[in-house]
Amino acid sequence: MNIVEVEKLTKRYGQQEVVKQLSFVLEKGTATALIGPNGAGKTTTLSMLASLLSPSNGTITLAENLTIGFLPQYPQFFPWLTALEFVEMAAKISGIEARKAKLQATRTLEFVGLETAMNKKTGAFSGGMKQRLGLAQAIVHQPQLLLLDEPISALDPTGRREIMDLLKSLQQDTTILYSTHILNDAEEMTDQLLFMKDGCLIEQGSLSEVKNRHAAPHIRIQFQNQTQALDFARRQSWESEVKESFVFLPVHENYPNMQQVLRILASEQQGIIGVESQAASLEEIFLKVVAAK
Ligand SMILES: Nc1ncnc2c1ncn2[C@@H]1O[C@H](COP(=O)(O)OP(=O)(O)OP(=O)(O)O)[C@@H](O)[C@H]1O
């Protein structure tokens, strides 16, 4: 079931179109990563979905009575409030009854790992703590749709792991759309990918669809030196690429599988240091797609 349908969504500032005719849907209970270089239009798109900006053209159709949580890229806090006071205030603003707001805020701060800091003033918080606090205010009312603008970019690797795990645990009941530059993490928590560049959606699909379209897996054979690699590549009938002392064999139905390669390699006299089957990472695919458009 689609809980969001976006059709030809466009945003203009003066003459400049910064979001151009985006169309996509968000299915209930899925996580979608919005990926693109700086200035691609990710924040503008998320802000329109959160109703903070109005579209110049196109439509956003939301499921009836959909509740939304939003984490902006640079959340602002009131430095004189404690984390608990701030999240309690956010809970009340999002419609939670006053008598339940404090309990809900406490539980949410525990959930995001700020249990020991909830009575501290937010002015003294580190970047990572602020990111967690921003997430807490976005989820305190248990929204059905969660829009997150760079939720993990200010965190160190341990913090990123913790927040990704938290988001994964929310995913059962929540539909998530998040922008990110950290593609390795996106690879873990993504049912759908949306690649943006210069305001356009340049690629979309599931992780496996995008990988199949742009990056066939390959077998990498390492030789002691480039001469040996070139000599091996020349003697095989398969299409291959030589980079330094490596030979790369693309794998698809007309090309060899690992077993066939190992059989050939067993008959090679010398020079082979290692053989590996490799799949392209999301980062490699992203760089390739962005460069091609
Ligand atoms: N209020 C505004 N007035 C004019 N141009 C704007 C405004 N807000 C954003 N833009 C322009 O729109 C384009 C898209 O910006 P946006 O912040 O949506 O990109 P982004 O993909 O989120 O980038 P980043 O990864 O750097 O956050 C940029 O060229 C930006 O300069």
Automatic annotation (TrEMBL):
Concerning PROSITE patterns, the annotation shows:
ABC_TRANSPORTER_1, ABC_TRANSPORTER_2
In terms of domain of life, where is this protein from?
Answer: Bacteria
Q: Name one GO molecular function term.
A: ATP binding
Q: Which CDD domains match?
A: ABC_DR_subfamily_A (cd03230)
* Keywords recorded for this protein, A-Z: ATP-binding, Nucleotide-binding, Transport
Per the record, a Pfam family? DrrA1-3_C
The UniProt entry, under InterPro entries, shows:
AAA+_ATPase, ABC_transporter-like_ATP-bd, ABC_transporter-like_CS, DrrA1/2-like_C, P-loop_NTPase
Please list the coiled coil stretches: none
Indicate the segments forming the ABC transporter domain, all copies.
4-223
Gene3D superfamilies named in the record: P-loop containing nucleotide triphosphate hydrolases (3.40.50.300)
Task: Specify whether Nucleotide-binding is a keyword of the entry.
Answer: yes
Q: Which family is this sequence assigned to?
A: Belongs to the ABC transporter superfamily.
Stated name of the protein? ABC transporter ATP-binding protein
- Organism, per UniProt? Planococcus kocurii
